[in-house]
Amino acid sequence: MKKNLTAFVALTAAAALGTASAQGKISAQSIIVNPTQPDLAVSVNVDKDVAGTQNPSYRAGENIRVSASVNRDAYVYLFNVNPDGSVDQILPNRLGGDNFVKANTTRSFPAPGDTFTYSVDNIIGQNKVLALASLTPLNLDQISAFKSAQDQFATVTAKGQAGFAQALSIIVNPLPQNSWVTDTAFYNVVAQAPVSTGSLFVGTNVANATVILNGQRLGGTNVTYSNLRPGSYPVRIQAPGYNDFATTLTIRANTTTSLNVDLVPTAPQPVYQQPNTTGNPILDLIGGLLGAITTPAQIQDPARSALDQKVSDLQNQGYVLQGTRTTTTGYVSTMSKGAARVTVTVDRSANRTLSVQVTETTLYRY
């Protein structure tokens, strides 16, 4: 269990201890135990095994919580010995890790409501957590210390099971036999399973289109996007001047899913202009007959009136006006409807006559 905000590692089996006045000894399941069976009791467990009797597995990087409870007011010290033999001190610490626990209550680390989490490190193997409860505070200066003012966890100087057991015996042997007790919990760290991902290729006929996957912008089109989690996702493709394209597709692990789309241009909305009026019913009638608005001083160019009338007829058929330009002899307007393109040409001819020509061109994709 690493001494940082993201990792716990492990405790392993025990080694020999020297005997002293407290007669601390080794058991098959613990690093050190009090052989006198005091009336003080401590119980430790991890969150996947609240009973503290099993050996649950955690994947590397998975969050973990350690809890200890006592039957009398006591100071609780939590340690971990990693599979490689190194030892970490979990409690006390500088993260608000007060280790005094009231009788018949539980101290968890991290505690509910803490703003940090712990996760198991990637040291694979069997882990053991040791809880040591004492009726009086213990001086751990001989076995652990904070290396700097910034360290949040103390570093245990003892190395290996035998070294840690010997160091603990020095701490507990001078104590009254009924004043301390230990308990252990086990868990196993296994390798993190690799996450299989898929890829997505999106192709379009528009260079500046944008791909949106599951509400998140991926980027442009005609690109392959990798490391996507498998699953079904909504996809939207957008480009200025084109209708959005939306669909749902499935991304599969270790496979590239392809999506090819021809975006359709957005038809411009016709602009409706409110006809002007002269206020004179007779002139308005004449203007309507000529296809143009008249004023008392001037009647609009008949060529433009003829053009406006023909454009209006085509608009009623669903064509959309794209633009109008003036020529030396009249006017030319371009219109569209789907793949069809129409050119309306009005020319002034001799003898005060007008020539109106409509040319249509349709584009087909093959």
UniProtKB/TrEMBL annotation:
<feature type="signal peptide">
    <location>
        <begin position="1"/>
        <end position="22"/>
    </location>
</feature>
<dbReference type="Pfam" id="PF08308">
    <property type="entry name" value="PEGA"/>
</dbReference>
<feature type="domain" description="PEGA">
    <location>
        <begin position="198"/>
        <end position="266"/>
    </location>
</feature>
<keyword id="KW-0732">Signal</keyword>
<dbReference type="InterPro" id="IPR013229">
    <property type="entry name" value="PEGA"/>
</dbReference>
<protein>
    <submittedName>
        <fullName>DUF4384 domain-containing protein</fullName>
    </submittedName>
</protein>
<dbReference type="Pfam" id="PF14326">
    <property type="entry name" value="DUF4384"/>
</dbReference>
<dbReference type="InterPro" id="IPR025493">
    <property type="entry name" value="DUF4384"/>
</dbReference>
<feature type="domain" description="DUF4384">
    <location>
        <begin position="57"/>
        <end position="137"/>
    </location>
</feature>
<dbReference type="InterPro" id="IPR008969">
    <property type="entry name" value="CarboxyPept-like_regulatory"/>
</dbReference>
